[in-house]
Write a structure and sequence with these properties.
The complex is a heterodimer of chains A (112) and B (111).
Chain A (H helix, E strand, L loop, with lengths): L3 E4 L2 E5 L4 E7 L6 E7 L6 E6 L3 E5 L2 E6 L4 E6 L8 E9 L5 E4 L3 E6 L1
Parallel strand pairs in A: 2-11
Antiparallel strand pairs in A: 1-3, 3-8, 4-5, 4-9, 6-7, 7-8, 9-10, 9-11
Chain B lengths: L3 E4 L2 E4 L5 E7 L5 E7 L6 E7 L2 E4 L8 E6 L2 E6 L8 E8 L6 E2 L3 E5 L1
Parallel strand pairs in B: 2-11
Antiparallel strand pairs in B: 1-3, 3-8, 4-5, 4-9, 5-6, 7-8, 9-10, 9-11
Classes of the chains: A mainly beta (112), B mainly beta (111).
Chain lengths: 112, 111
């Protein structure tokens, strides 16, 4: 069964700093990676997705994907206190009915 | 409106009693999902409906049932709750296997 590993488990970042989160899948058939953000007491909301090798940038958020190593990373620059949340990585495999397999998440705390 | 609603938000159940959780969406999404989330664990997919077709995960096949009377509503049914069912239950919906939109969750406590 596919596993999705995320690291680190938690991260403390100074306001204005860079946060870097990692995610790796054990399934060689992964087609998409999704990053979700969940603020405390709220539902997870999709942040970014990526399916091609390389990099994708949206504002302060950048996602990298290396399909050969099944590794994706999320980078948050100029981190803000409002970025404090649980970041969930999910892998989707088209052949498995497009189901999402989630990692445990990385808890990010941005200190003012 | 990209809202997925869940009722109730909190549910207290006795061991051995049935539990029924409700989810609704008005985005006309073809697929609705149910996940179970326990503390310090990844959200775990329990089952999903693609249109009227129910797909249940192999390892939770006998523990959960579901119905989807129309496109907007989906329920999650536990016939006999056990202590191990205490968790947050998240409903999500998507269209054409794109982004999944999540509801706020129902926190189930079984005593």
């Amino acid at each position: 069964q596919q596993k999705v590993q995320q690291s680190p488990e938690s991260l403390i970042v100074p306001e204005g700093g860079m946060a870097s989160l990692n995610c790796t899948s054990s399934d060689r058939n992964v087609d998409y990676f999704w990053w979700y953000r969940q603020h405390s007491g709220k539902s997870p909301k999709m942040l970014m997705s990526i399916f091609s090798n390389g990099e994708k940038e949206e504002g302060r958020f950048t996602v990298h994907l290396n399909k050969a190593s099944l590794h994706t990373s999320l980078h948050i620059r100029d981190s803000q206190p409002s970025d404090s949340a649980l970041y969930l990585c999910a892998a989707m495999t088209n052949s498995a009915g497009n189901k999402l397999t989630f990692g445990i998440g990385t808890r990010v705390l941005v200190r003012p | 409106d990209t809202t997925v609603k869940q009722n109730p938000r909190y549910k207290l159940a006795r061991v051995g009693k049935p539990v029924n959780l409700i989810c609704s969406q008005t985005m006309n999404h073809d697929t609705m999902y149910w996940y179970q989330k326990k503390p310090n664990q990844a959200p775990k997919l329990l089952l999903f409906y693609y249109d009227k077709i129910l797909n249940r995960e192999a390892d939770t096949f006998e523990k959960f049932q579901s119905s989807r009377p129309n496109n907007s509503f989906c329920s999650l049914y536990i016939g006999s709750a056990g202590l191990e069912y205490s968790a947050m239950y998240l409903c999500a919906s998507s269209s054409n296997y794109a982004e999944q939109f999540f509801g706020p969750g129902t926190r189930l406590t079984v005593l």
